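Sequence, please.
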C-alpha cells in the first residue's frame, strides 16, 4: 500500500540542566539540553510487514508514555504500554543495558522520583490505584528478563486507593534527605497523607484532607520558607497546594502536624475553557475506533456516530426533548509546578487538552479568591506534557510538547520558552539536527510504502529518527488524552453554573462546607483512626 506518512507527535518530555528526553511514537531520544546534540536514540522500528525484523536491541519499548529523570540526573526512567518500567544510566541508554527492567501489574499512570537513603528511588502509580516503588542499583542487570521475573514474584504495592491515583507528593523529614510522608490523591476527591520510608508502613494513614469537590489531578509540596515569603502563614511542615477539578486550587497549611484548609482560589474558568479544544466524547470515539480492527481508514471526528440499538431506541422514543444536554468543556488540571523568577515565586498550571499553559503568582493563593487571572503562554496546539528547568544562574526555561497531528494542532512538536518580563516567551533554539526537526517547522510528511497492519495491531509506524512516521489512519486513532476521558465525573457544574460539584457539599456555601469537614475530621471517626494508628505503631514500631 502506497501513501503519505506523517510524523507522530512528541507525547512526553523531561529535562534536567544537562539533558533533555523526548518520546515520539516508539522512539526514545535523549539530547544535550544546552547544545542540542543527540546523546542517545532508541528506535523500536515498529513495522507490520512480514519478514521485517525489529530494530537493533531487544526487547524494545512498546509505545513509551512517561519519562522522568532522577533527582541526581543520572538515571532516566521510561514506562510504556507493555507494562514495563525501564531505567537507564544517562551515559548508557541502550536496550539490554538497563539498570532496572521491572514488569508492572498494570500500566503506569504517574511516574516520579524521590530521594532515598539507598539511592535513587522511582515511584509508580498505576491506573488501578496501587503505588509501587523501586530503588535503582548502580550496576546494570546481567539478564534483565530473568531479573524481572524474580522481582515480579515478590512485588508488593506500598499503598493503594480504591480509585485511580492521579498524583503524588512527598514531604521531607526534619533531619534526613529522604521523605517520611507521602501525599496521594485520586479521581474520587480523596487526598491522603501516609507514612513513607524504608521502615515505615505506607498503609498507616496520618490524615485525610477533605473538602475537594472534584477530581484531584495535581498536588505539590512547597517548602515552608518559600510559602511564608509569598505571604502564607508559618507552617511546621511543607505547605500543600492541590487542584480541585479544572479551575480551583486549595492551599493546605500545617499546624501542630495537622493540615487545615487555608485558602480556596478559583481561577477564571471561562478564560481557561477558551483554550481547550479537545472534547472528551470525541476522544472516547477515537479510542473505540482504535480498538475496532475492522476500521482500516482514518477516524473522522466530524462523522456521525454509528447507530446502535440503544441509540436508535432513544431517538424513536423522543426526538429532541428527552435528549441529554450537551456537556460543556471538561477542565482538568493535570500538573502543578513551583518555580522562582524575578525574585518571586510562581505556579505553573497545565490543563489537559489546552493549547496553552498558565502561570499564577504564588502570592495570589494566600486567601480565598474567585476569578483569579492567570498569565497565559499560548502554544497553538494542545499541550501534552511540559518540562521546567531552573538551572542555577539561568532564567527559567520551559519545554512543551504538543499534539501537532493534522487537524488537531499546528507548529513544532517540541518548543522552548524562556521567562521574560513576567511571562514565558517563545525562544526557538539554534540547535543541530535531529533536535531541529522537533523544534522547527511543520510536521514531517513523506511518501512511502505504508505497511498493512496485522490482526490486533493498533499502531503501525515506519522507523525514522528522530520522529517516527505512520499513516494518517494510525495517527487519527492515537489516544493521548486519557485524563480528560477518565478523571472528570458528571455533572461538570452546579445548576447555577459554578464548577466542581460534590455529592454532599455542592449545595453548601464554602464556609458551611469547610465547617462540615472540620466537624467530620474532629469526630468519632477521627478518634477511631487515631486509635488504629496507635495500634499499628505499637505493632510495627515507630522508627
Amino acid at each position: 500500500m502506497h501513501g503519505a506518512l506523517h510524523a507522530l507527535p512528541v507525547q512526553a518530555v523531561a529535562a534536567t540542566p544537562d539533558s533533555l528526553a523526548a518520546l515520539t511514537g516508539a522512539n526514545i531520544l535523549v539530547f544535550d539540553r544546552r547544545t542540542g546534540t543527540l546523546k542517545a536514540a532508541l528506535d523500536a522500528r515498529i513495522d507490520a510487514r512480514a519478514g521485517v525484523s525489529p530494530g537493533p536491541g531487544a526487547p524494545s519499548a512498546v509505545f513509551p508514555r512517561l519519562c522522568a529523570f532522577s533527582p541526581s540526573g543520572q538515571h532516566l526512567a521510561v514506562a510504556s504500554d507493555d507494562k514495563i518500567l525501564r531505567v537507564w544510566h544517562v551515559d548508557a541508554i541502550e536496550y539490554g543495558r538497563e539498570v532496572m527492567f521491572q514488569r508492572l501489574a498494570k500500566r503506569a499512570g504517574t511516574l516520579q522520583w524521590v530521594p532515598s537513603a539507598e539511592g535513587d528511588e522511582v515511584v509508580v502509580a498505576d491506573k488501578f490505584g496501587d503505588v509501587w516503588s523501586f530503588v535503582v542499583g548502580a550496576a546494570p542487570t546481567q539478564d534483565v528478563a530473568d531479573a524481572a521475573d524474580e522481582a515480579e514474584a515478590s512485588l508488593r504495592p506500598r499503598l493503594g486507593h480504591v480509585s485511580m491515583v492521579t498524583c503524588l507528593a512527598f514531604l521531607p523529614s526534619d533531619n534526613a534527605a529522604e521523605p517520611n510522608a507521602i501525599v496521594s490523591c485520586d479521581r474520587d476527591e480523596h487526598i491522603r497523607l501516609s507514612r513513607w520510608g524504608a521502615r515505615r508502613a505506607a498503609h498507616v494513614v496520618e490524615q485525610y484532607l477533605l473538602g475537594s469537590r472534584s477530581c484531584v489531578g495535581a498536588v505539590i509540596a512547597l517548602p515552608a520558607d518559600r510559602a511564608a515569603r509569598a505571604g502564607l502563614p508559618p507552617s511546621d511542615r511543607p505547605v500543600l497546594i492541590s487542584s480541585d477539578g479544572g479551575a480551583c486550587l486549595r492551599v493546605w497549611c500545617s499546624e501542630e502536624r495537622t493540615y487545615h484548609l487555608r485558602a480556596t482560589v478559583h481561577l477564571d474558568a471561562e478564560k481557561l475553557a477558551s483554550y481547550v479544544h479537545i472534547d472528551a466524547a470525541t476522544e472516547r470515539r477515537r479510542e473505540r475506533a482504535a480498538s475496532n480492527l475492522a476500521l482500516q481508514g482514518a477516524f473522522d471526528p466530524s462523522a456521525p456516530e454509528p447507530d446502535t440499538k440503544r441509540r436508535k431506541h432513544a431517538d424513536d422514543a423522543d426526538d429532541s426533548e428527552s435528549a441529554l444536554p450537551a456537556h460543556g468543556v471538561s477542565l482538568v488540571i493535570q500538573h502543578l509546578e513551583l518555580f522562582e523568577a524575578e525574585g518571586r515565586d510562581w505556579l505553573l498550571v497545565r490543563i489537559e487538552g489546552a493549547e496553552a499553559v498558565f502561570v499564577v503568582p504564588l502570592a495570589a493563593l494566600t486567601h480565598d479568591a474567585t476569578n483569579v487571572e492567570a498569565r497565559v503562554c499560548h502554544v497553538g496546539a494542545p499541550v501534552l506534557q511540559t518540562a521546567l528547568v531552573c538551572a542555577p544562574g539561568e532564567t527559567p526555561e520551559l519545554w512543551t510538547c504538543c499534539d501537532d497531528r493534522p487537524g488537531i494542532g499546528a507548529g513544532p512538536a517540541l518548543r522552548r520558552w524562556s521567562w521574560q518580563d513576567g511571562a514565558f516567551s517563545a525562544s526557538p533554539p539554534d540547535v543541530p539536527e535531529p533536535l531541529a526537526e522537533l523544534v522547527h517547522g511543520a510536521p514531517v510528511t513523506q511518501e512511502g510504502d505504508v505497511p498493512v497492519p496485522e490482526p490486533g495491531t493498533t499502531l503501525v509506524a515506519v522507523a525514522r529518527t528522530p520522529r517516527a512516521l505512520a499513516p494518517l489512519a494510525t495517527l487519527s486513532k492515537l489516544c493521548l488524552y486519557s485524563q480528560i476521558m477518565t478523571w472528570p465525573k458528571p455533572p461538570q457544574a452546579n445548576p447555577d453554573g459554578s464548577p466542581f460539584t460534590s455529592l454532599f457539599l455542592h449545595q453548601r456555601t464554602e464556609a458551611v462546607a469547610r465547617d462540615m469537614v472540620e466537624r467530620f475530621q474532629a469526630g468519632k471517626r477521627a478518634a477511631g483512626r487515631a486509635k488504629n494508628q496507635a495500634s499499628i505503631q505499637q505493632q510495627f514500631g515507630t522508627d
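DSSP finds ten helices and 32 strands in the chain.
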